Amino acid sequence: MENELSVSLSATNIKEAIDSAWGKQCTVHAPGTVANLVCGFDILGLALNDPSDIMTIKLIDKPEVIIHNIDEFNLPTDPKKNVAGVPLLDMIERLDNQAGFEIRIEKKIKPGSGLGSSAASAAGGVVAANHLLGNLFSRNDLVQMAMLGERLASGVKHADNIAPCIMGGVTLIRSILPLDIISIPSPPLYVTIVHPQIEVRTEDARQILRKQILLKDAIKQWGNIAGLVAGLMKGDYELISRSLEDVLIEPVRSILIPAFAEVKYRCIEAGAMGGGISGSGPSIFMLSRDETTAYKVEDAMKKVYADTNISFYTYVTTVNTSGVKFV
């Protein structure tokens, strides 16, 4: 087992949790997320109120994971190849292989969208399973398990989608080893997203990144990250806007997203505070102070992509402050 539990589980604890879960099931909405928040590569993320996946889970008497996909994406049902399955297999191991899970997944977050599709599946599954077990595992335990799904999807165990999906709001990943996640308070924010119907695989988007950077660029990036966190905590919209700048990742990854520069220019012209690539793309997000501006930004996005031959979806939503929700 790769990660130590935050608390020691006895055989009695495990048996009592499993006994109490028999015959029960629960359904959750696992939210989409925006990772990086422009300058915070792999360390910042926020949860969205729309879109979200729908997942239903129940305990079974064999130490295995049975997956039913209720959507058109044809994702693997082999749990070792499924981003929801791998974390649940890890949970089963932590349960001394005394039980397993059957899970139904209806994905509303398209894989490869840059909106945390893999994180929603990974996080939603372990949060729902833990609820059945009477919250046997801590929040950090759940993040560690869900990160295994992210490693399957991208080759890297990152938590910038996982943490906000589980915890809600804006989160800062100060450290992975040891895991240290901080919730960042923020003022009301509206999030406008355009999702061009192309796929950018996270693994591919990581491969094109520069392996070395100039110190002057690193210093500028650190200043923007610190400014963004300070702006969120102070509710300073002007500071947030000034800090939404990425000098390291966006200049490289934006070449994978058609009309990116035009979208960003038109959205800021429409009143957005700023924004950029959501996760590894291809979705683009913009932050606004109010709903009226957020819809003007959506109109700007639509006008740009209407002039291309690329189909697209748009969302106008807000920050989900609670994370995975039970329904």
Task: Give structural notes.
It is built from 11 helices and 11 strands. It has 2 domains: 11-183 and 322-326, Ribosomal Protein S5, domain 2, CATH 3.30.230.10; 190-318, 2-Layer Sandwich (Alpha-Beta Plaits). The longest helix has 20 residues, at 215-234. Strands 1, 2, 3, 4, 5, 6 and 11 form a 7-stranded mixed β-sheet that branches. The chain has helices at residues 11-21, 85-94, 117-132, 139-154, 162-167, 202-207, 215-234, 237-243, 250-253, 260-269, 291-306; strands at 25-35, 44-60, 65-69, 100-106, 170-175, 180-184, 190-196, 274-277, 284-288, 312-318, 325-326. The two termini are 32 Å apart.
Topology, element by element:
Elements: H1 11-21, E1 25-35, E2 44-60, E3 65-69, H2 85-94, E4 100-106, H3 117-132, H4 139-154, H5 162-167, E5 170-175, E6 180-184, E7 190-196, H6 202-207, H7 215-234, H8 237-243, H9 250-253, H10 260-269, E8 274-277, E9 284-288, H11 291-306, E10 312-318, E11 325-326
Parallel strand pairs: 3-4
Antiparallel strand pairs: 1-2, 1-11, 2-4, 2-5, 5-6, 7-9, 7-10, 8-9
Helix pairs in contact: 2-3, 2-4, 3-4, 7-8, 10-11
